[in-house]
Amino acid sequence: MRRRQFIVATGLGAVTALGGCLGSKSPPPRKSSVVSDFEVSDGTLVVDLADNKWVMSRYDGSQQSPATVSPVGIASAKGSSGGGGGRGATGRGTGGYTSAPHTSHGHAWYHGGDYADDWYEDHEEEVTQYPVTVAALGVAYLGSTDQMQDEAPDAGTVSWDETFQNPSGTVMYDITNRPEFSQAGWYRVGANIVGGDSNHDFRWECYDLEVSDGATGFRIDEQWKVSPRI
Amino acid sequence: MSDTRTATAALLVLTFVVSFCSFVYEFVYSELLTVMYGGTVTQYVITVGLYFFSLGVGAALSDDLNPEDYGGNFFRTEVLLAAVAPAGFLLIVGLNSVRVPRAVPPELLWTVARLPVVVVGFLSGFELPLLTHMVDDRDDDGTTTPAWIHRLGDRLHDWTVTCLGVFWNVERKEGRRSGLSVVLAMDYVGGLCGAVVYARLLYPRLGLIPTIFVLALLNAVAALAFVGYFSGWSWPSSDNDDRRLFGDSTPTPLVGRVPKTLLVVCLLLTASYAGVVANHETADERLSELYLEQQIENEYPPGAMSVEITDQETTRYQHVIRYERTWTGAGPNPHFTGRSEQCLRLGSAVQLCDSWADSYHNGLVDVPMSLVDHGPETKVLVVGGGDWIAIDHLRQYNVTVDHVDLDAQFMNMTKHDPFFRHWHDDAYEYDRLQTTATDGYRYLQQTNETYDLVLLDVPGATDDDLLTLYSKEFYRSVRQHLTDDGMMVTWAYSADRYPEHHKAFVNTVGAAGFTRQLPYWAWEDIDSDGETERVERFYAFAPGGRQPLSVADGTAYVQQYRDRYHDRQWHRVPRYRGVRVNSIFHPNYDVLVDT
């Protein structure tokens, strides 16, 4: 065999063989419709909940499990170190906003990507769309853009600054009422969703918002939808 | 003994040494990648696969090396191996120590971390063809070999050929054996010795860091010995065989002109590695401390936490790391009260910190003790918990405790260590305690006891070795040892942060026959900011309906946090579609968390 053929053949063989190892095989974030819009008006963050709220899940809905609302706070789990990550769009606070795929509500989809469509297509029979209600809505200031670049939180609950129980329609939060914060920066809005029929606790759907303080007042520059992987 | 025979023997000794090194490099990288990324089977399989692939590429491309300078190229190969192998080791450690920007794709990191395996495999691929050529070129027909060796060899050969003839069609070959066959034979002998010495001596006695330097030192010394023996300045003044070998009327050395720079590099490497090996304990300690401190600090925002390793010890089963973490962030410390505290890790997974040692065990013991009777009639099994702290909490309820932990060395260490004594208060002396040092799964297979409560205080699912403790068979065994009203309690990873693990875990527990679950948190104001925080997630599992958690009849801890526990209910264990159960014989590696 000639040298060039040998190199090409072995190279192709190696790439093919290692193709199965490279990269993450983690499933995509779950799809949902919980919040339709965010805006900042006169220093107040306005959260419009979606009219028709739903979530897609691999939970087997033939079982009935009464919900208990997921509590709020922070956790320091035994056994953990690092973790998170996986494939799909990232870049909250690091310039990946415009290139990230966007949801039908216009939010950048964290860890979303072309692979997500393939996954949902391949696992169509495992996934069910469930109607949900919002049992609680939390708002938390995550920190400045620099802080977000260093440590953007994963999907799920954080230590909320304010929570609203059983919200409906529109929720308003005065982002100027916490003087210890720099009001510009990143906020997380989380919705604890519960199955409307199954009463199953689907935990939290979260949205990370970058709020800047311009000449015309506060405005939202980036909106990321941060969902747990399905 | 003639020079030709000596030279051939020297080449075979070199073959043994370099194959010894090459095999052990492969083991060292496999283990290092396992330590860094977890998943023993995955890392070993990928490393061995990549190594053999690279070996093949190197062997194939060795035909392109100049046949006039096999010796020089062999010397270059050995020097490069001596330089590259430890450098690759440090590269992998460095990749896991530095704060890699999130923008860097994980696929790139995966590839870079495996480059040392590829490079060492590629260079090792040159070795055998070069040595084979050189042995063939010695043209040793065996006439100079002592007669007794000939006879012994012939007997062995006869016997082997006879055995082969049982199955194959054979024809005994007389006379000189090819260079390839003797070099290959010596290569496999070197590989076998490398495997045995690594498994029985190098890894358990020295550890990974000194081992890589021992191997590099061997490679460097082999290179020097080769060039010293076969280069011009030491070559015998007259030898007809050598004239014939090199087709010249004057004796031509096997190694031609050696670049002085390369020789100096080789000498420097040898001296440096000899220094490291001579002081291997210090080097090992410093390097591993540096790595561990950096790795733990990287779990926090830059500059937020400073970590100092205070003690580390490797038992037969785990690497025990003690460290002090100090809050150096600008704002208030959200992790614990004060500026510093002590923590413990087993491998990469955190097990205990001063700030939540108590509340974690409140969750593990004091919450479920609200669901069972107190007193000696209540039988509790603790799986894991070699720090004895769970036992200390249990003895407050005067229950009978069977305690099973695999690591007797760790249990003995924690008995008298002041850090642990502060938390367990000599609980190992509890008179209703029976401790057995064995594997939890094996214990359950051998005992006929049934328990009202089984507490799983096991390490995180970070390693293949722990797959059994997260398997359907283990959970089923626990269920079969429960009394009619018994239940199992375990801590759990975050469902949001480790979604794949969580779904595999829940489906596995469900498949083992547990139908009801009571999820709850342990609570405490761990940073003294006036707000109660969640500390740890727990699940109580039962194979049928159970009484709800009653705050009024609860333990002191449950009553202290009554508003957090008043609505805790048992629910059906959910099931997730498309998520495979983790079984001992059909593992679902999703149950392992990435660390």
Automatic annotation (TrEMBL), chain A:
Residues 61-99 are annotated as: Disordered. Residues 80-96 have a biased composition (Gly residues). PROSITE patterns: PROKAR_LIPOPROTEIN. It comes from the Archaea. This is Uncharacterized protein.
UniProtKB/TrEMBL annotation, chain B:
The active site is at residue 457. It is a multi-pass membrane protein. The keyword Membrane applies. One of its GO terms (molecular function) is thermospermine synthase activity. Residues 288-546 form the PABS domain. Keywords: Cell membrane, Membrane, Polyamine biosynthesis, Spermidine biosynthesis, Transferase, Transmembrane, Transmembrane helix. It catalyses: S-adenosyl 3-(methylsulfanyl)propylamine + putrescine = S-methyl-5'-thioadenosine + spermidine + H(+). One of its GO terms (biological process) is spermidine biosynthetic process. Catalyzes the irreversible transfer of a propylamine group from the amino donor S-adenosylmethioninamine (decarboxy-AdoMet) to putrescine (1,4-diaminobutane) to yield spermidine. This is Polyamine aminopropyltransferase. It comes from Natrinema hispanicum. The lineage of its organism: Archaea, Methanobacteriati, Methanobacteriota, Stenosarchaea group, Halobacteria.
